[in-house]
Amino acid sequence: MKKVQSILVSQHPEPDNTKSPYSELAAKYKLKIDFRSFIQVEGVDIKEVRRQKVNIPDYTAIILTSKNAIDHYFKVCEEVRFTVPDTMKYFCLSETIANYLQKYVVYRKRKIFHGKQTFPELMDLIKKHKEEKFLLPTSDLLQPIVPELLDKSGVDYTRVILFNTVAADLSDLENVFYDVLVFYSPAGIESLFKNFPKFKQKDTLIAAFGESTQRAVEGAGLKCNIPAPQVNAPSMTGAIEKYIKENK
């Protein structure tokens, strides 16, 4: 078992809060933890939005699964000169995403609903508003469970791709090595191999959050050493700490 001393967290921005789970983990076990996004998003051209034949003003509710979806939705609204009405209903994947809406709207005056963290939880709220016409702004990559549950529920919704997820340039990491690489999405794995086609895991530990990410790890011929969530470790940092404790 390898001793963990350094960790690279992909896709997550570095927390600005000194009491974040990762900073607490670093302090507790004297770890070096760096943050580097393996992916980046690029907004699609307004002409491409129009080619999808989606008329933004037609919708009475929006399903938001990320902060990027919020940014690009309001960007497109501005480009097409559409003023989002106060009556618009927002269905957000989590409270964090819901709070991010304050960047664009007066929160207390809007009809905002949010789940805890997963789409099935949010789906329970969406089903209670079947009379709405939902718009689902996303990237070109979308977890299959989202359209599957929406289709099954019979709600009136339309997906519109407003931004694309692409690999970030990681060339400066070519000769930098970490004990643990942490991934939160299959796109992170794709970026790893796009940047380093000859990557070999060797004794590097791979931590992966979510079933789809874990499948991507295994599909790339790698071993997922630290899966999350776990029964007694629902968070990524919790799973990493559990591994450290079990393999001192």
Model description:
Helix content is about 35%, strand content about 25%. It is built from nine helices and eleven strands. The strands form two sheets. Strands 3-8-7-4-5-6 form a six-stranded mixed beta sheet. It has a five-stranded parallel beta sheet with strand order 2-1-9-10-11, sandwiched between helices. Strand 1, helix 1 (about 20-30) and strand 2 form a beta-alpha-beta unit. Helix 5 runs parallel beside helix 6 (about 145-155) and helix 7 runs parallel beside helix 8. The longest helix has 13 residues, at about 65-80.
List keywords for this structure.
6-stranded mixed β-sheet, alpha/beta, about 35% helix, 5-stranded parallel β-sheet, single chain, Rossmann fold, 2 domains
Structural class: alpha/beta
CATH architecture of the largest domain: 3-Layer(aba) Sandwich
Strand content: 15-25%
Average pLDDT reading? 91
Give the strand line-up of the largest sheet.
Answer: 3-8-7-4-5-6
Helix content class: 25-40%
Residue stretches low in confidence (pLDDT < 50, at least 5 long) are: none
Architecture blueprint of SSEs:
Layout: E1 6-10, H1 21-29, E2 32-36, E3 39-43, H2 46-51, E4 61-64, H3 67-79, E5 89-92, H4 95-100, E6 111-114, H5 119-127, E7 133-139, H6 145-153, E8 156-167, E9 180-183, H7 186-195, E10 205-209, H8 211-219, E11 226-228, H9 236-246
Parallel strand pairs: 1-2, 1-9, 4-5, 4-7, 5-6, 7-8, 9-10, 10-11
Antiparallel strand pairs: 3-8
Helix pairs in contact: 5-6, 7-8
